[in-house]
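for the recovery benchmark. tokens below, seq after
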């Protein structure tokens, strides 16, 4: 961003903002180069008559419908709309995928206003991809392409896949019928894509000769069956089969508007200005998808937490701090582009770190601030990985469990690492005040006789006996400084915290180590 001041803003090399700036710059440059490259490719591959005057964008949707593809789809749709698109062509070749992801993509399409959405089915649009195509204003298909089979299945790693029961299928049937009716397509045929037991017949209204399609249930529920003539059953809707049709058959049944053997033909039919802008999956999207995966996410968080802990051993923006910042910046960057995170999650994450810092450096013990910091930290990282915090379906519950396991697992591994490295904690400035240091070799060599060696003064700690009274001159967490008469000594409690200027009593001695308790 440009500042309103004429004086340039300088960022020091050890300032973390330069890393965030580089990430944003690289992201914007990659996006710009992607658009430029795709425009050049399209200008060569999709050239044609220049008579049309409607600006068009093409979004290629290939592969399974998963959250990664959804993020790419929504980013590309935003780019097209912001670029002044009048037509958006979805170049679809997909076997379908997750139901919740599909429904969110369909909802996003239905919110678009003032732009004609065209689906071009190049090879296949099954399951969720077929539902996405039915939500478009216009469908064109390759003559040999396939559309349909929206059977909803459930299953998991330990259970076989099976089709859902009527109770779970009914809402999907209602939604698919609504999509078809809104776009002027036969709702009965759309229902047969979801319900393998829906038998569809062609019917003709005797009054005006209008032809349409009805399911057997719709025919039986007619109030005036005498006004209709029942035709033959649609072959593709026979019992036990989810309706699936080719391009030519889809046009014949009214599910598609036309057939085209190439994208160029589709653009010609809709009157698109040439060249068009093609938005395709790139290596940036592959990187975002990889960073959003379970194992990479866990690794990023684990390295980030360990690097942050390492930074405590050398305060200032050192290698540990830079590595931690880089890991968490990559985490939130991938979530931003994946469409699951916003500035709320970043704000919560920073607030959690502030709570933890206050608990460690300002507030004694581990109380409300520390517990709140940990909870907010987990909440921010889980929210950054999800579109909805409250689960709405079985897939949502599975995702929530996986996200929680990833975040909590990384924290547990860090805690175990701290536990096994406890012997080295005394080197960390943060823990130096919490760990009582062993006596130095010089102190060990001091004789335990009250007079010491000839010519040497008596050691102050030798004059202290159990029951002596004094007061703390620094917080005891559990170690610190205490004053006994004229002697200032290192003391420790048995774990409790004692504030500054608190009367204390010596409860026991262990060598040159003095243990005290509040008097």
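predicted aa per position
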């Amino acid at each position: 961003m440009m500042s309103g001041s004429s004086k340039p803003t300088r960022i020091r090399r050890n300032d973390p903002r330069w890393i965030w700036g580089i990430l944003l710059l690289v992201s914007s440059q990659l996006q710009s180069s992607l658009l430029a490259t795709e425009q050049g490719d399209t200008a060569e591959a999709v050239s044609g008559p220049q008579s049309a005057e409607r600006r068009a964008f093409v979004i290629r949707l290939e592969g399974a419908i998963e959250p990664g593809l959804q993020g790419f789809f929504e980013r590309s749709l935003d780019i097209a709309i912001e670029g002044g698109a009048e037509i958006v062509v979805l170049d679809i070749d997909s076997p379908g995928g997750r139901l919740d992801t599909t429904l969110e993509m369909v909802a996003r399409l239905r919110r678009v206003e003032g732009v004609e959405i065209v689906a071009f089915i190049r090879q296949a649009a099954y399951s969720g991809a077929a539902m996405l195509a039915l939500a478009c204003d216009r469908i064109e298909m390759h003559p040999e392409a396939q559309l349909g089979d929206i059977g909803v299945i459930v299953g998991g790693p330990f259970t076989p896949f099976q089709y859902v029961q009527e109770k779970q299928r009914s809402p999907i049937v209602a939604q698919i019928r609504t999509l078809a009716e809104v776009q002027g397509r036969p709702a009965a045929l759309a229902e047969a894509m979801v319900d393998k037991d829906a038998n569809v017949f062609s019917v003709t209204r005797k009054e005006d000769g209008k032809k349409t399609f009805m399911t057997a249930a719709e025919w039986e529920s007619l109030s005036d069956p005498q006004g209709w003539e029942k035709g033959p059953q649609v072959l593709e809707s026979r019992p036990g089969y989810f309706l699936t049709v080719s391009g030519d058959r889809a046009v014949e049944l009214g599910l598609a508007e036309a057939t085209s053997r190439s994208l160029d033909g589709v653009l010609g039919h809709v009157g698109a200005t040439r060249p068009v802008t093609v938005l395709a999956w790139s290596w940036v999207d592959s990187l975002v998808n990889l960073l959003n995966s379970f194992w990479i996410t866990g690794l990023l968080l684990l390295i980030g937490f360990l690097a942050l802990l390492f930074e405590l051993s050398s305060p200032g923006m050192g290698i540990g701090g830079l590595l931690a910042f880089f890991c968490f910046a990559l985490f939130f960057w991938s979530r931003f582009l994946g469409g699951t995170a916003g500035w709320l999650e970043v704000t919560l994450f920073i607030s959690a770190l502030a709570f933890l810092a206050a608990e460690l450096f300002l507030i004694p013990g581990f109380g409300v601030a520390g517990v709140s910091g940990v909870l907010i930290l987990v909440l921010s990282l889980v929210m950054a990985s999800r579109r909805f915090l409250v689960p709405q379906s079985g897939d949502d519950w599975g995702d929530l469990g996986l996200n929680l396991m990833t975040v909590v697992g990384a924290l547990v591994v860090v805690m175990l690492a701290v536990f096994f490295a406890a012997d080295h904690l005394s080197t960390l400035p943060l823990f130096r005040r919490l760990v009582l240091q062993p006596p130095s070799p010089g102190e060990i060599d001091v004789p335990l006789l009250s007079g010491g060696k000839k010519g040497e003064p008596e050691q102050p700690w030798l004059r202290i006996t159990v029951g002596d009274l004094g007061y703390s001159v620094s917080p005891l967490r559990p170690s610190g400084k205490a004053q006994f008469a004229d002697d200032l000594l290192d003391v420790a409690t048995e774990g409790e915290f004692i504030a500054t200027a608190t009367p204390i009593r010596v409860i026991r001695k262990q060598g040159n180590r003095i243990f005290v308790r509040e008097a």
